Automatic annotation (TrEMBL):
Classification of source organism: Bacteria, Bacillati, Bacillota, Tissierellia, Dethiosulfatibacter
Residues given in the record as alpha-D-glucose 1-phosphate binding sites: 100, 165, 180-181, 191
A GO biological process held by the record: glycogen biosynthetic process
Organism listed in the record: Dethiosulfatibacter aminovorans DSM 17477
Its biological purpose: Involved in the biosynthesis of ADP-glucose, a building block required for the elongation reactions to produce glycogen. Catalyzes the reaction between ATP and alpha-D-glucose 1-phosphate (G1P) to produce pyrophosphate and ADP-Glc.
Protein's recorded name: Glucose-1-phosphate adenylyltransferase
PANTHER family, per database record: GLUCOSE-1-PHOSPHATE ADENYLYLTRANSFERASE, GLUCOSE-1-PHOSPHATE ADENYLYLTRANSFERASE-RELATED
Keywords tagged on the record: ATP-binding, Carbohydrate metabolism, Glycogen biosynthesis, Glycogen metabolism, Nucleotide-binding, Nucleotidyltransferase, Transferase
Length: 371
């Protein structure tokens, strides 16, 4: 089945309840980002650039939009013969079936899929992070260290460290202790939720974990500590680029606003590690005589008659005359009628903001979400 030394398993079934109404009818990886993308585009594009062409996408919550969007993976050139993208929802067999109970259980329920390719390594990814990363470099590192497991880590703000799994390492970057969301972290080197396992090691660990009724069937809480206790070779792989977990409204909003900074850490315009998407093709955007647009991303199909500043405007959005949009994110197919004012807000797909409405405020500490 082609060169499948390493295949990827992309966890994309999260509900993302902290994103509130943005995920009411859509899984978190399917949420719009940066105007023309969906969050899952970044992990799928990374796989293509890393020469990893076999990707299992594990869906669960509200999967319809995501399944249609991914299709056969051709938008990311992941439709090669004998490889490609496979959608992997929970399913029933002769032994019964369950929803995915945790990150490790999701992979466990797809042992047959991985066995079909018989890879040497398995890359575990999350479908709800914004970043560019060449996984092939991490794979080379895992081989060099003869690691049973390599965990991608990055330095985070000390105030945020307790939200992550923290890796404590020796001078060779070998992990000697793994703390899942510790109250008092010993360092600020946080797991990014990106793992490369030797398949033989992971398979055995998943079988053990599945037989443990006291387990949460989670990589951070259960599988990684178990492998450490068994003395397996586990190493941290240091990543120094831009990476954001956009699991909350605040973090999601901030990551979008990062794109508008003059010297943004995350450059969507760079040809290096280009991000691909499967969005529809629309007519060119149109700026009317009264339009005034500053420091904003405007996608195809938009009709702008009003004032737009520091905002991300997705495709096929209409912004009426004398309307004002500031420091906001407008999803596709939204209509902002004449005279409406939108400040520090997120307006969801297909929404209509009626004439003269006022949504949000630049003076507010909260981000208004209408979806």
């Amino acid at each position: 089945m082609g060169n499948n030394e390493c295949i990827a398993m992309l966890l994309a079934g999260g509900q993302g309840s902290r994103l509130k109404d943005l995920t009411k009818n859509n899984a978190k990886p399917g949420v719009m980002f940066g105007g023309k993308y969906r969050i899952i585009d970044f992990s799928l594009s990374n796989c293509f650039h890393s020469d990893i062409y076999t990707v299992g996408v594990l869906t669960q919550y509200k999967p319809l939009l995501l399944n249609r969007y991914i299709g056969n993976g051709s938008a990311w050139a992941l439709d090669k013969l004998g490889q490609g993208v496979s959608i992997l929802p929970p399913y029933m067999d002769t032994k019964g079936g369950n929803w995915y109970l945790g990150t490790a259980d999701a992979i466990y329920q797809n042992l047959e899929f991985i066995d079909m390719y018989d890879p040497e390594y398995v890359l575990i990814l999350s479908g709800d992070h914004i970043y560019k990363m060449d996984y092939s470099l991490m794979l080379c590192y895992a081989k060099e260290k003869d690691a049973d497991l390599a965990i991608a880590v990055m330095e985070v703000d000390w105030n945020d460290a307790s939200r992550f799994g923290i890796t404590n390492v020796d001078e060779d970057m070998k992990i000697v202790e793994f703390e899942e969301k510790p109250e008092n972290p010993k360092n600020n080197m946080a797991s990014m939720g990106i793992y490369i396992f030797k398949w033989s090691i992971l398979r055995e660990a998943l079988l053990k974990d599945a037989g443990n009724d006291n387990s949460d069937h989670d990589f951070g809480k259960n599988v990684i500590p178990m492998l450490l206790n068994e003395g397996k070779n586990i190493y941290s792989y240091l990543f120094e680029g831009y990476w954001r977990d956009v699991g909350t409204i605040d973090s999601y909003y901030k990551a979008n606003m990062d794109l508008l900074e003059e010297n943004s850490e995350f450059d969507l315009f760079s040809s290096e590690m280009r991000v691909y998407s499967n969005n529809e093709t629309w007519r060119p955007h149109y700026m009317g005589e009264g339009a005034d647009v500053n420091n904003s991303l405007i996608c195809d199909g938009c009709t702008i008659e009003g004032y737009v500043k520091n905002s991300v405007i997705s495709y096929n959005v209409t912004i009426g005359s004398n309307s004002i949009v500031k420091d906001s994110i407008i999803f596709n197919n939204a209509v902002i009628e004449e005279g409406a004012v939108i400040e520090k807000a997120i307006i969801g797909e297909n929404m209509r903001i009626v004439k003269g409405s006022r949504i949000g405020s630049l003076d507010s500490d909260e981000i208004t979400v209408i979806a």
